[in-house]
Amino acid sequence: MRFFICFIFIKLHSLSFAITTFEQNLVSEFWRLDKNSTSIQSKVSDWAVKYNTIAVISALDSEKLVSLGQKVYQLIDQAKRLKSKAMGTRSSILMEKRFAELYDLPTILTKKSALPLLIATLSDLVLYEQMSFWFHLAEKDSTLIKRLNEVNIYGKKGHFDRLQKAWMRIDSRKRFAENLRLIEHHRASFDLFQSEGSAYMIALRERLDTHLTEQIRKSSTFWGRLGQYLLKAHKSLRLRAKSKLNWMEYHLSKIFGTAAGALNIQIFMKSIPRKELKRLKEEVLKPGDILIEKTNGAITDKLIPGHFSHVALYLGNVQQLKSMRLSSGDLILDSPLFNKYSSRLESGEDVVEVLRSGVTLIDIRDWRVSDLAILRADKYSEENLADALLQSLSYVDTDYDFAFDVNTRSIVMCSELPYQAFKEINFRVAKSWGRWTLSPDDIAVLGGRTDSRNKIRPFELIYFNHKTKQVPSNLRYDSYIEILEAAGSRYHEVPSN
Q1: Among 184, 219, 408, 439, which has the minimal tally of Cβ within 10 Å of its Cβ?
Q2: Rounded (10°) CA dihedral 395, 398, 403, 407
Q3: Secondary element (H or E) of residue 248
Q4: Reduced to 3 states, what is the DSSP secondary structure of residue 466?
Q5: pTM of the predicted structure, to 2 decimals
Q6: How far lies 279's CA from each of 104, 274, 372, in Å?
Q7: Torsions phi, psi of 145, nearest 5?
Q8: Whether the Cβ atoms of residue 104 and residue 84 lie closer than 8 Å to each other
Q9: Higher pLDDT, residue 377 or 181
Q10: Is 100's pLDDT higher than 60?
Q11: Which of 356, 288, 309, 368 is nearest to 489 (CA)?
């Protein structure tokens, strides 16, 4: 009988230390979450190094940041689900008590009660680490915030700003610090786990020992909370001031740009004949061609640095587009966007142009320009070219970007069309007044010969008209380079492609 009782006691004791499938899943899910978080931070760090050390960033690089931003939001959801899963654990000790009532636990915790506490607290820690990482990174450059806020999450934009507010909340940090103190209060229990050889519990406990947890502990004291309140107030005022300043800057630029654009002296300006523009439309232009022009009579022509002052993109007519397929394999004309604008395309409005009134479709025959260069992406495959056309068309009916920032994807300026369309190409984007921008000449310098002697030029210069006269093909490249260099556009200093 005594032997039987001893056997039962030993068996029950061993079971109490065994890890169930559910608990094992909790542990595995957390380490996957932690690995994910580390991987994202590593990729973002690599991106930030490139972003901050070079003067050129492609639209593809910018898209990578958006993709990383989406992964962050997915990670946050993953952490929240894991925490809920742990908090919903029922045991003989937790019963139906809420997680906040864990202070009622006995002095010695069992794994069954300690594990949910650990997992939930660690899930919060991963969230804090991720948000802290991004916010410190974003403080160095506001572009990061702009791009992340443009990611559509839960049907809304500006999600990064909402996360920032959550990160700054004192009550959430306080709850996290209380959980840390609770775990510390039960250190004896974790010492017992160590003596039992429960390596997974020790590893989880040691994961909490970070610089950030120490910071949060300190911030949960009276003086720490006071400091956090002051910091929150400071950041809130700074963000509001910056937002108001950006708003004022944008609208002043809009007022000035609209007024300057409305003033021109084109009455006596000699322009390329409509007959020549008609010939280009019928015989020369192909889908995806970049149109770079100069209008001598426009006031804005004097305000834009370099020789050229405007950029547009030729979509192509229905006949040229009918056999083109997207990288998805679908015919480009079957896409909803092309269906939406099919009547305008058929009427001859086959050029995407960014005007101060917004992005629209125009007929090149209606242009009044004095200089015109046509660049062709002859290295692009038909599928990639079709994707570029669709990207350009997606901006039709959107607003003009008076902030001249290539990272605000919802609105564009004229020179941003090729930048967003041909994502794999490194354009000569420069940082000015805290934003990344590029001029029409920054597009123009990428045009030239694309033969074996000039591999770095991604676009072929197929046509050049200077002062309403077409430059002969044997003089085209030299004349083009000479004019750009004379305008200070440093033709020979181009990004590597």
Answers
A1: 184
A2: -40
A3: helix 222-262
A4: strand
A5: 0.60
A6: 85, 9, 14
A7: -65, -45
A8: no
A9: 377
A10: no
A11: 309
308 by Cβ neighbours in 10 Å (0-12 / 13-18 / 19+) ranks as buried
Task: Please report, for residues 10, 85, 165, 329, 360, the alpha-carbon distance to residue 212 in angstroms, rounded to integers and kept in the order given.
Answer: 42, 24, 18, 48, 50
Tokens 């039960």, residue located: 186
Nearest one of 214, 256, 238, 253 to 403, comparing CA atoms: 253
As a CATH number, domain 10-220 is 1.20.58
**In the chain, where does the domain assigned CATH 3.90.1720 lie?**
266-486
Which of 66-70, 317-321, 355-359 bottoms out in mean pLDDT, i.e. has the lowest? 66-70
Specify the pLDDT at position 351: 94
- Phi, psi for 80 (deg, rounded to 5): -65, -40
Residue with tokens 């022509």: 301
Least Cα distance to 306 among 430, 425, 402 occurs for 430
CA end-to-end span of the chain: 84
What are the residue ranges of CATH 1.20.58 in the chain? 10-220
Q: Where are the alpha helices (DSSP H) in 111-221?
A: 111-140, 142-149, 159-168, 170-185, 187-195, 199-207, 211-219
38-48: per-residue pLDDT in tens? 888 888 777 77
Residue 487 neighbours by CB under 8 Å, 6+ apart: 306, 307, 441
Rounded to whole angstroms, how far apart are CA atoms 410 and 246? Answer: 16
Contact (Cβ atoms closer than 8 angstroms) between residue 436 and residue 405: yes
State residue 77's pLDDT score.
84
Residue range 266-486, CATH number = 3.90.1720
In this structure, the dihedral spanned by the alpha carbons of residues 349, 352, 353 and 356, taken in order and rounded to 10 degrees, is 100
3-class SS shares of the chain: helix, strand, coil, % to 5: 60, 10, 30
In the prediction, which pLDDT does 7 show? 37
Please enumerate in sequence order all residues whose Cβ is within 8 A of that of 448, keeping only pairs 6 or more positions apart, or say none: 454, 457, 459, 460, 461, 477, 480, 481, 491
| Tens-digit pLDDT profile for residues 298-352 | 555 566 778 998 999 999 988 899 889 998 899 999 999 898 998 998 899 999 9
